[in-house]
Write a structure and sequence with these properties.
Length: 260
């Protein structure tokens, strides 16, 4: 009996039907001679092209129906289908060295997936895939743009981001209510942030919690109301106006102040 897979709203599933788009996504990591982890393969539309590209492929899928379908239709994946939640996986146990991550990511957890990739930034030189267009625009946004935010800064600190192409709603089953986009993250040359990484995250998140205010006001919960460094020109800016490097400088200013 052939397995049948229904897209499940609870898992944020929208199955891609357009094979040309699936091939274009698979080809985004074609130049990397590394093992590949596909997140949320569903019915294997992207999987088939990754295998055609001779990828050393492992897939992680939470949906039982999809797992049954993959086992039935992709014999070459025998022993390489992980029926677990990607967000809970210990990827260091899965791969001893570097690997790439790809997928038509569930839209409801796409940001969490990229933050998980960030936790393994020294193991993942490339991550690509399809997400909601709005999220892709935020990730790829440059300083000074309205879309520039927390996820932009934290990912761009470690990765070069490419917004590759937009995907229409009508190539999915069921069609989502939003447009989609394919992006690629390529690890940059940065080895360390030259600041306290934990404090960097706190500064970025605190600044953007009140993004319409100047840094002088938005950082008061962290630095206090009457801070001696508020007279510096950087505090006249709003958070979306700062580059990653300026956030690093701001973190070092905060660190010096908090150590006093």
């Amino acid at each position: 009996m052939t397995s049948f897979v229904r897209p499940k709203k609870s898992l944020g599933q929208h199955f891609l039907k357009d094979l040309q788009i699936a091939k274009r996504i698979a080809d985004t990591i074609k130049d990397y001679q590394l093992p590949v982890l596909e997140v949320g393969p569903g019915t294997g539309v992207l999987t088939q092209f990754l295998l055609e590209n001779n990828a050393d492929l492992t897939v992680v899928e939470l949906d039982r129906e999809s797992v049954a379908y993959l086992k039935e239709h992709f014999s070459s994946l025998s022993g390489k289908i992980i029926e677990e939640d990607f967000l809970k996986l210990d990827l260091s146990k899965l791969y001893p060295g570097n690997f790439c991550v790809i997928g038509n990511y569930p839209y409801n957890i796409s940001s969490q997936i990229f933050f998980k990739v960030l936790d393994y930034k020294d193991r993942i030189p490339c991550c690509a895939g399809m997400i909601q267009k709005e999220v892709a625009e935020r990730i790829a946004s440059k300083p000074g743009k309205k879309a520039f935010g927390i996820i932009s800064v934290l990912l761009q600190a470690w990765y070069d981001i490419e917004y590759l192409f937009t995907v229409s709603e009508d190539v999915f089953d069921p069609p989502p209510k939003v447009k989609s986009a394919v992006i690629r993250l390529t690890r940059n040359q940065r080895q360390n942030l030259d600041c306290d990484e934990k404090l960097f995250k706190t500064v970025v998140k605190t600044a953007f919690n009140q993004r319409r205010k100047t840094l002088r006001n938005s950082l008061k919960p962290l630095l206090g109301k009457d801070c001696e460094i508020y007279s510096l020109p950087v505090f006249d800016k709003r958070p979306e106006q700062l580059s990653v490097e300026e956030f690093i400088e701001l973190t070092n200013l905060a660190a010096n102040l908090l150590q006093q």
